[in-house]
Amino acid sequence: MVSIIAFIGIIFGMFYLRLKSLDRRARKNLALSKEKSDLEIRALRAQMNPHFVFNSLTSIQYLINLKKNDEAEFYLNKFSRLLRLIVDRAGYTENTLLSELDLLRIFVDLENLRYEDKFDFVVEIDDEIDIERALIPGIILQPFIENSIEHGLAKKDEKGRLYLGIRKVRDSIEIVIEDDGIGREKSAELRIISGNIGQSVGVNNVKRRIELLQKGNLEHLYSFEIKDLYNEKGDAGGTRVNIIIPYKLNEA
């Protein structure tokens, strides 16, 4: 009788510990989900940061002042489409690669207008990728594109090159964002001189979101890495970002 009671006690004890474990896991998942949502909201807000809006409209106003009305209308339409894309994507944790590329191309065009054709933008996409159905986490590419322009290419004396390559590697997508700008070290020095020493909020946001995606999906690989590039003389020659995410298709 005593042994049966002891056995039942052990079973109830194990059951209680299991419930406690599940409760802790549920609380942890809830906290991670909330943090992930908060980060996505911050990323969406960053897309519409006042500096970018002001700089874009100022560049368009400059064209109007030069009586280049057709060109001004062209870029104003681009700016309007960018706003529409951002609004339409609000609330979605994933977007098709096609819509992400549409947004990036418009963003880069407006930045190139601001910096007076300071760089070429080259995009290469693997033919195996169905860009109309392939899904990627929203707003994970723009912060790196923006960083390459702002801190690398814009401060370069000669015309630069911004490269975006996307290829399928087994069941993953590998994304490469590369610039031949002044490099992170030189950029950091210039920011210290100018008094602008804050870290990139957008890049840190993406880093944390990728970490959370990996924690919530151990079956697939999510990762990103930033590398400094150097020329033959050992001088800084730009920056490369590598992002790996699962290859997922929209089944709708």
Written account of the structure:
This protein has one domain (2-249): Histidine kinase-like ATPase, C-terminal domain (Heat Shock Protein 90). The strands form two sheets. Strands 2-4-5-7-6 form a five-stranded mixed beta sheet, covered by helices on one side. A three-stranded antiparallel beta sheet has the order 1-3-8. The radius of gyration is 23 Å and the shape is globular. The relative contact order is 0.12. Residues 1-9 have low confidence and may be disordered. It is an alpha+beta fold and 252 residues long. The protein contains seven helices and eight strands.
Count helical runs.
Answer: 7
Subunit organisation of the chains: single chain
Which spans have pLDDT < 50 for at least 5 consecutive residues?
A: 1-9
Would you give the CATH topology? Heat Shock Protein 90
Strand content: 15-25%
CATH class category label: Alpha Beta
CATH-assigned homologous superfamily: Histidine kinase-like ATPase, C-terminal domain
Secondary-structure arrangement, i.e. CATH architecture: 2-Layer Sandwich
Secondary structure: number of strands = 8
Short synopsis of the structure:
This protein has 252 residues and is of the alpha+beta class. The chain has helices spanning 2-47, 50-65, 69-89, 97-114, 142-153, 184-194, 201-216; strands at 94-96, 119-125, 134-137, 160-169, 172-179, 223-230, 236-246, 248-249.
